[in-house]
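Researcher: Structure for this, please.
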Amino acid sequence: MKIEVSLKPGHSDPEGQTTARLLKELGYRVETVNVSKVYSLVLRAESRKEAESKAEEMCKRLLANPTKDNYDIVVGEEK
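Model: Predicted structure, token format:
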């Protein structure tokens, strides 16, 4: 599964702003850069629903700050 955590609109993204500035200095026509984190996890679960529920719990308890972060969960099948 993958969990992407990104800032909600309106929150400052200093790392993204610095990256955008540096890319512009290098000659790239970048408007904005938004930085996010992607967590790749292998989770044992009995069902897709259980995996989604556990991922939601992980986000709320540790991976994301509900005040400033959005998160997106993508659950895949084990190969």
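Researcher: Any notable elements?
Model: The mean pLDDT is 95. The helical segments are 14-25, 48-63.
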